[in-house]
Amino acid sequence: MSSYVIIGVSRGVGFEFVRQLSENPANTIFGLVRNKAAVESKVAAELGRKNIHIVQADTTDSEALKKAAEYVSDNTNGTLDYIIANAALQAKTALVGFDTLSKDPKALEEDLIEHYRVNTIGPVHLFNIFMPLILKGRAKKVIAISTGISDPEMTLKGDIFQATPYSMSKAALNMAVAKFSALYREKGVLVISICPGAVDTGSLQTETEEDGKLGMAMFERFKRYSPTFQGPAKTEDSVKSVLALLHKATIDGGYAGIFISHTEGKPYL
Ligand SMILES: NC(=O)c1ccc[n+]([C@@H]2O[C@H](COP(=O)([O-])OP(=O)(O)OC[C@H]3O[C@@H](n4cnc5c(N)ncnc54)[C@H](OP(=O)(O)O)[C@@H]3O)[C@@H](O)[C@H]2O)c1
User: H or E element: which one contains 3?
Assistant: First the structure.
C-alpha cells in the first residue's frame, strides 16, 4: 500500500494520475485542488472510489498547504510515500515571444512573477511542507512535473521563442529539484523532475483565429526541433509512462535530482 499527494488534479494529467493510481484499492490518493466541491463531484461521478481524498489547497498558499499536510498526516499516521507537483500555469502569453511581450513591460513582469509563483515557488512550498511526512514514508519519492521546453537545448534546436515565462519558471523548478536532492538524497529521498511529453489535455486550446495561427506557428517550431513530432500524446499513455518511470527510478540508479523525459531519451517530443 502506498500514499500519494498530487496537486492540481481537477483535470488533465493530474486527474489521470488520480484515476490510474486509485485503480489499486490498496493505494491512498490525496488530490490537492483549488475547488474542492467541484472536483469531489467530478471524482464521485467519474471514479466513485473510496481511496481518493480531495483536499483544498492552492499551490501558492503555504498556509493552505500546511492544513492539507495536517489532513494527510491525520489519515496516514504521519507518513507519506510520494509527492507529485503537477499543478501549473501556462498562460495564453505562451503563444508569443519577448518581442511581443516587451510592448507592455509591466504586464510582462507580472506574467513572469505569476508563472514563478505557481510553477516554481508552489512546488518549493509543497516539498518543504510535506517533507517531514516523506521522511517517515517508505517510498520517499518527490516528483516535479516539468517540461522539455525548459531545456535550453530544445529551445535552441527548434528556435522556440514561445512559452517564455512558462519555460523560465520550469527551468527554475528543475534547479529547485536539484537543490532539494542535494539536501535530502543522503536521507534516502529521491527528488526528480519528469517531462511527460506533449500531452493532449487541451491546456493550450486556442479560441480566436489569431491565436489558432500563433498555435500553429509554435507547432511548426516543435516540428523544427523534432521532425517526427505528430502532435500530443493521449493523457492516459503519457501518465502511464511517467508512473512507470517514477516507480522504477532510484537514487542508486542515478536518478537523484535530475530532469528527464518520461521516455528517458530525447527528443522530448
Ligand atoms: N499538457 C502538456 O502538453 C504538457 C507538456 C509538458 C509538461 N506538462 C506539465 O504537466 C502538468 C499538467 O499539465 P496539464 O496539461 O494537465 O495542465 P492543465 O490541464 O492546464 O491543468 C493544470 C492543473 O493545475 C491546477 N492549478 C493551476 N494553478 C494552480 C494553483 N495555483 N494551485 C493549485 N492547482 C493549480 C489546475 O487547477 P484548476 O482547475 O483550479 O485551474 C489544473 O488542475 C503541468 O505541470 C504541465 O506544466 C504538460
Answer: strand 3-7
Between CA 109 and CA 93 the distance in angstroms is: 12
CATH topology of domain 3-261: Rossmann fold (3.40.50)
pLDDT digits (tens, 9 = 90+) for 206-221: 889 999 999 999 999 9
Helix ranges, the chain (H): 12-21, 36-46, 62-76, 98-101, 105-116, 122-135, 152-158, 164-184, 209-225, 235-248
Give the separation between CA 93 and CA 101, rounded to whole angstroms: 8
CA-nearest residue, atom 36 of ligand 1: 8
- CA-proximal residue: ligand 1, atom 1 (nearest): 199
Contact yes or no for 152/158 (Cβ under 8 A):
no
The domain limits of the chain are 3-261
Cβ(98)–Cβ(159) below 8 Å: no
Cβ of 10 below 6 Å from ligand 1 = yes
Residue 93's pLDDT is 86
81 lines ligand 1 (CB under 6 A): no
Give the DSSP letter of residue 193: E
242 lines ligand 1 (CB under 6 A): no
170: annotated active-site residue? yes
Residue 168 C-alpha cell reads as 523560465
Q: Give the cell for residue 7.
A: 496537486
* Listed residue (119, 137, 120) closest to 80, CA to CA: 137
The rounded distance, in Å, linking the Cα atoms of 237 and 139 is 23
DSSP letter for each residue of 110-140 = HHHHHHHIIIIIHHHHHHHHHHHHHHTSSS-
43-66 pLDDT per residue, tens: 999 999 999 999 999 999 999 999
- 82 is known as an active-site residue: no
